[in-house]
Design goal:
With about 190 residues, the chain is α+β, with helices and mostly antiparallel strands. It contains three helices and nine strands. It starts with 7 loop residues before the first helix and ends with a strand. It binds flavin mononucleotide.
Length: about 190
């Protein structure tokens, strides 16, 4: 049995270790969190997304998306979002409240696109119509050439984390911020 982590410092370190592992291991449960956003109409929206990169030093999570997708529009309107992770191995839920932005050009985008364009997921960013649009609008349209991609890099700086551990010995929950932490009632 794992020794329970006792201090918020230990918990915070372990969270970032698990996030880093998840970005590198496709079998890690935290590899596919839910990203929740707010639309221009003020309504919630959420979807599963792959956690691609974790920058521990800058406390930043990165994901990739089609630049034409609703989520990219939503975060340009409201640049705050929540990632929700669950792992039944850890028995941990993590809610990461983030400030999020999307880049569609520049050296950071190009560096990633050079890698992605050689992978099977390249076609995710070359479709003739935007994600969520009706298929009838695709008539006669071909895939874009890979010079004309719709790849967007989403960077999410973690502002606050809500950590919940389920345990037969008693659930534990903590709020972790850059400037402090608190135990919370689960
Ligand atoms: C396992 C899984 C992984 C996914 N990974 C991504 C991803 O990395 N990027 C992405 O944009 N959409 C991903 N999707 C699709 C999204 O959940 C969503 O359907 C799509 O991006 C459109 O979202 P939107 O309309 O909210 O913009 C994934 C879906 C699943 C089920």
């Amino acid at each position: 049995m794992r020794t329970p982590l006792q201090t918020p410092h230990e918990i915070r370190e372990q969270i970032w270790r698990e996030l880093t592992r998840a970005s590198q291991d496709r079998h890690h449960a935290w590899r596919t969190p839910v990203l929740a956003t707010v639309g221009g109409d003020g309504l919630a929206n959420a979807r599963v997304i792959v956690l691609r990169e974790v920058d521990v030093v800058h406390q930043t999570l990165r994901v990739y998306a089609d630049a034409r997708s609703p989520k990219v529009r939503e975060i340009s309107h409201e640049p705050h979002a929540v990632f929700v992770f669950w792992s039944d191995r850890l028995n941990w839920q993590l809610r990461a409240h983030v400030a999020i932005s999307a880049e569609t050009e520049g050296s950071e985008v190009q560096a990633r696109w050079q890698r992605v364009r050689q992978s099977a997921s390249a076609t995710d960013y070359l479709g003739p119509i935007a994600p969520g649009d009706g298929l009838e609008s695709a008539q006669g349209e071909a895939m874009s050439s890979d010079a004309v991609h719709h790849f967007a890099l989403l960077s999410a700086q973690v502002l606050e984390m809500d950590w919940l551990e389920l345990s037969r010995n008693g659930h534990r929950r903590a709020n972790l911020r850059a400037d402090g932490w608190r135990w919370l009632a689960p």
